[in-house]
């Protein structure tokens, strides 16, 4: 019976792939470019020769732009937040455009401006020229091949305990590498910059979209949906009390999530706003009431796996809170695995009912390919192959795994011990091996300061501008986790806001180089 059912599913997905697999390429990302005055004229010439900036980034500064649903004012601020080197931010920024960015996003924008003013080409050259292509592309091939072979080995040769051990290491490391390399691809830092076509042949945008799509496999649920629809907007809306909410995440009619990190943050940090998703069902009455609209009455219910788990937390109880976090996180990820099958079968992601058709088409295209690969792995080597992938993708986020330390504290609300200001982003410096294991994901504050500097160059920012970052490389990851699970922060200073400097001669915004209280 099982063989018959799985064979039927296999045939269905083959048919589905031949008819709708091409829809993933319909998503249009903009390459917004606001070059520094140093090379403005060259960019202007290249702009006319290339035509639409939907198809390629300008030679010299090929930086990943904002989602299609971004407003014109948001696109005008491209150089101010996540993407491009601009030595004179004040000349391109209006009050209206600044308001598009959340307070923490402006905080990073101001830090970036201060660093460029002080260190100039030492930093902007990394933005313009540096890419991770020579390192990250071979590493992505190695990573995905390793995940594939290890999953087959787990399914066919190992027992459950051995599969678990293999997922802790090296499985979790490979999964983190997959995420970080695809993340570089999304920001336009994977392929060599300064060229309209990659290797003189391939359209940059189409190649990046293809790598993001196919590079997200093999996986149990994958990083594609979050990266494709939620990460670039995270750089715009991080810590925004109106946009970075569960209600907005699930109710929004925009193609892109307002802040995709809310999907993870809700399990471990305080958020403002209502929860989601919401569902409307007919109200069931046990006794009749004389109401003219009783037959048409609809009851709204709200559900949130992450919020339900977080509600079980108790201040000062890190073990209890860690268990609650692990339970809600693992269960929600299992529901995502299940939802991928539903999306593949129905062609619609019911968690996000208000999103446009293009969103559902692209989700469907990915889910059909990904679920087909999972079915093949199951048939080839058994269900433990999928268990290995599932554990590899989840376990690095959960204590006591060392990588959890950077994951649960990257956007807290730490207080600067010198200035008393709230710091919305932080990095974890636990030595060279830790940075290698996480492939630079631990340099999170650096990444939000300069999103297009590739993974292998983020560590250089502390060398170039040491006063902007915390000193030392001896962070105790277990102490960090204990603190995070003892007393949870608000997400990215959402409760108190951040201090923004006025004027170009301001000091280090937020003074992230200082110790935190």
Mean pLDDT: 82
Please indicate the count of domains: 3
Strand order of the largest sheet: 1-2
Task: Report the helical percentage.
Answer: 40-55%
Q: Quote the beta fraction.
A: under 5%
Shape: globular
Q: How large is the radius of gyration?
A: 23 Å
What is the N-to-C succession of helices and strands? HHHHHHHHHEEHHHHEEHHHHHEEHHHH
Question: How many individual helices?
Answer: 22
The low-confidence runs, each spanning 5 or more residues with pLDDT under 50, are 1-96, 504-510
Report how far apart the termini are.
Answer: 61 Å
By helix and strand content, what is the structural category?
mainly alpha
Main beta sheet strand tally, sense and closure: 2 strands, antiparallel
Q: How many runs of DSSP E, i.e. beta strands? A: 6
3D structure, described in words:
The protein has 517 residues and is mostly helical. It folds into 3 domains: 290 residues, no CATH class; 70 residues, no CATH class; 134 residues, no CATH class. The strands form 3 sheets. Strands 1-2 form a two-stranded antiparallel sheet. Strand 5 and strand 6 form a beta hairpin. Helix 1 packs antiparallel against helix 16. It is globular, with a radius of gyration of 23 Å.
What is the topology?
Layout: H1 2-20, H2 40-50, H3 72-76, H4 89-92, H5 95-100, H6 103-119, H7 121-129, H8 133-157, H9 160-186, E1 197-198, E2 202-203, H10 204-214, H11 224-237, H12 246-251, H13 262-265, E3 278-282, E4 298-302, H14 305-310, H15 318-346, H16 357-381, H17 384-394, H18 404-409, E5 414-415, E6 422-423, H19 432-438, H20 444-449, H21 460-464, H22 477-486
Antiparallel strand pairs: 1-2, 3-4, 5-6
Helix pairs in contact: 1-16, 8-9, 8-16, 8-17, 9-10, 9-17, 15-16, 15-22
